[in-house]
Amino acid sequence: MERNTNSSIYAHNPHHGQHDPTEDCSTNTPDIVRIRRYATFVANITGLFPCLIHLAVLVYLQWVRKSKSFEHLLAIAVLSVVTLVVSASGFAFDLCFLPSSGAFLFYRKNIWLFANNALFCAYAYMIVMLCLDRFLALHKPILYRDVFITPRMRVVMVLASIAIGSLCCCKWFVYYNASLAKLHNNTHSTVNEREQSERDSSTNEVWFTVVRLVSCIAQYFLPGALMIGFSVSNVQKLRYQEKKKHSLGKLRMAGPTAEFWQQSHDTVAHICTILAVCYCLLNWPYMFADYLYDDLRRTDVAFGILTIFGNFMQCFYLQINLFVFAYRSRLYRRTLIHLLYNAPCRFVKHLFARRLFEEDAAPKEGTPSLRTIIHSTRFVELMAVL
Known about the structure:
InterPro entries: GPCR_Rhodpsn_7TM, TAAR. It comes from Plectus sambesii. This is G-protein coupled receptors family 1 profile domain-containing protein. The chain is mainly alpha-helical. It folds into two domains: about 10-330, Rhodopsin 7-helix transmembrane proteins (Rhopdopsin 7-helix transmembrane proteins), CATH 1.20.1070.10; about 330-385, no CATH class. The chain contains 13 helices and no strands. The protein has helices at about 30-65, 70-95, 100-140, 140-150, 150-170, 170-185, 190-245, 250, 255-290, 300-330, 330-360, 370-375, 375-385. Helix 10 (about 300-330) crosses helix 11 (about 330-360). About 30% of the residues are buried. Residues about 1-20, about 175-205 and about 245-255 have low confidence and may be disordered.
């Protein structure tokens, strides 16, 4: 496919990593573009591990420990895993890890760019919904208890986040197909048609600049501003409640139940504040790279390094849930230690003891039985150390 590097209408998102998905990624790709693809692909793959651990902890709390009100957190954890997988799949295609034909080519050319940006945007708005959930729990406890705590409302909030993220990134459907059509017209047209096409191109560039600016604001700036607004209000409310020093005015409940629920709300509210600050620090710089990206900067080394750094920060933001929740939540921290340390140790001890029982078939005369060794004090102390 012939490439046009003179018009910004052909510019793609930095997540895209290349202008033409059908070009030979092993020979014709500039070095900085190839390095950017490898760096982002590795960041996505390595980021899956903390995201999967975080998801496992929430699944354990929801279905094994029978904890409640984890639906929204589970949806956020699942979306972070899906986002990293989708992002890695596009760069795997660019790096020739996937075949350049059939369904993979169609997915990379027509779906991936929109899906990748829409998932990142939907994830941001799901954090906004989480901050809104804490805002209502602290400021409107009766309304929150009667309306927003229901599973149906949780599903509505998740679907609303996905819908908003998709709407903010629809430009990548429209303008990618428009750029292909315009490239075809410029290649197979007369001189008069090309002149008319150039006049239309200037109009399209202005229109695309406006749409791209609005999209960047809705995709990056607006979620961060909403997170900060809700978080500041939540922190002020928590400080006010700390001064009051009584539980009746917090959730309209009394006794141990009020104390437990208040502690849960305080923990998640502080988590939302940390996530809001981290979103602004890790995603707002990338907003400028997204807006300024065009074909002329595609092979620029300085801009490539900036884009690598921005991609890494965005991937890291999807992984910080594990560390933030472990830092703020005692229940989460205990569950994480149990899954990573206690449960494997118990499994190893059980497997080791079972293996000893199987090997204890016919002990020799005068030799203590392995069953006796297992029940001895020395063996119990050894296994306790393990």
